[in-house]
Amino acid sequence: MTRLPVPTLPAPPVGVVGLGQLGGSLAAALVAAGREVTGWDVDPAARDAAAARGVRIGRDLGGVVVLAVPLPAMAGALEGLGVDPAATVTDLGSVKTPVLAELGPALGGRYVGGHPMCGTERSGHAATDPGLFTGARWALCLEPGTELPRWLRVAEVALDAGAEVVPATAAEHDDAVAAVSHVPHLLAAALAAAAGEAGPLALALAAGSFRDGTRVVASDPAFVTGMVQGNAGPTTAALSRVLGQLARPWPELVAAGHAVRAAAPAGRRPVRVPLDRTALLALGRAGGAVTGRLAAFVEGHLPGPG
Amino acid sequence: MTRLPVPTLPAPPVGVVGLGQLGGSLAAALVAAGREVTGWDVDPAARDAAAARGVRIGRDLGGVVVLAVPLPAMAGALEGLGVDPAATVTDLGSVKTPVLAELGPALGGRYVGGHPMCGTERSGHAATDPGLFTGARWALCLEPGTELPRWLRVAEVALDAGAEVVPATAAEHDDAVAAVSHVPHLLAAALAAAAGEAGPLALALAAGSFRDGTRVVASDPAFVTGMVQGNAGPTTAALSRVLGQLARPWPELVAAGHAVRAAAPAGRRPVRVPLDRTALLALGRAGGAVTGRLAAFVEGHLPGPG
């Protein structure tokens, strides 16, 4: 990964709403990266934990405002807070089309949906880890109405946290995470439940393949249920693809699964991509990610909220 | 785990046929545990590697003879070797009913089927690891015709290698491993293949749940195909149970999977089990394992081949 020169315009402040595992980790990572971060959480203990990591605590937020709250709380997350009307607003929710539908009408081009592909089975501010985003992929949505300078400001936040930015539309994102996150949670649950039917002897003989295949069932069931139901259409479609694969003759199925793993390209090839929506989305569709940016591309041209 | 006093009768020698990852690791572990081990492999490089770990190389085998060869080679594994007609014969194959059907008629009560639940995606003598069996579960079959003193001699071999012995019938074993090993391999293949259909963006966003759920697709496809086809009936039944789970409403499915994980008992309770088939099988069915044995139970009573 090549981190390229930072832009010459000053980075805007960051406001983080919700200081649980994701928001608290992000705020701490950005403080460590030298960003000015203000955070807020309804829980005083979460505020205290963030303050101890150098996060300024307050309700007045501007620059890039990150909504790090559960999906059901997203619509009301800004209530009672003083948010700069010019601020760019992003979120960390695990589905993007529903959040876009909820926040888009009010925020318009100021809203940039995001989803960092990290987090653990743990949750809450006690699970805060400033290294949580290091090397993680962070999907960042580019809709037809997205203002590109705002998208770049959010991308910088993700890059400063140590992540790599994958450009995608909200719909593309939701289809992709259905295949690689939501359906895996359902398969893990089905595998564990079926092994439970098989009985204690089966569970006693469970070794690597079962432990790997069921690790995520340790996640909070309410969280997982909310996640798959919040992305019901794409998850149903992705599950159908899996069931279709399971109906193939086993030699074909096993070979097809192995081939996907074996075809994964070794290493990574640096590329320079023009800063336009079409080119960025093509990068994401090709399995690429943004790892930095050239100052020249934005020098003097960022009209963002910073 | 409480390792109890060893029996007062001398442990019989061990012969290991096939010195690849499993056989080579077992031979090395037993040498380290002070057992007298003779090994054989058709590959001179495998013989040399075993010899370097203190394994005597030869074709004359007695005591407990372990067939550590692939399933298709099992029936002919003893051809060309000089095996004591009183020897107890066991194997490490991943299915037990077909091997019992193959070896049982000729060997009768002298055959004790076994299956250590370990091994990695690697194979061959270069993947030898004397610690491979440490803490692993090792299923050991108790059929109506199994001679219990011979079963104990094989159990001692597994215990000496660092494993814990799970008593089961061959049919029970095959049903159990279908649920916790063979079906997980099929689900991992289906998940990987379906994500491949979803495309590079999906694979680029793949994080923990996908990596965990597809790790085993790195295994050799021919090995995996042989494994599931060699246990086709139980694997089909176990897969049907998984498909039945996947047809449930998602909140129910997620809760059921989580409950199996959450219900796993913390810790372990030492028990003493009489040395009879019914009691040992009950231990296995309850999810327990044999971790050692009292000398008194066998003192002077082992008519085995040692």
Q: What fraction strand of chain A?
A: 5-15%
Please name the CATH architecture of the largest domain in chain A. Answer: 3-Layer(aba) Sandwich
Element-by-element helix/strand order of chain A:
EHEHEEEEEHEEEHEHHHHHHH
CATH superfamily of the largest domain in chain A: NAD(P)-binding Rossmann-like Domain
CATH third-level topology of the largest domain in chain A = Rossmann fold
Most strands sheet of chain A: 6 strands, parallel
End-to-end separation of chain A: 26 Å
From the structure provided, what is the oligomeric state, counting identical versus distinct chains?
homodimer
Give the largest chain-chain interface (CB within 8 Å).
A-B, 85 and 84 residues
Q: Report the mean per-residue pLDDT of chain A as an integer.
A: 89
Helix/strand class of chain A: alpha/beta
Number of domains of chain A: 2
Uncertain ranges of chain A: 1-8, 296-304
Strand adjacency order, main sheet of chain A: 3-2-1-5-7-8
Number of helices of chain A: 11
State the share of residues found in helices of chain A, binned by percent.
Answer: 40-55%
Instruction: Write down the Rg of chain A.
Output: 20 Å
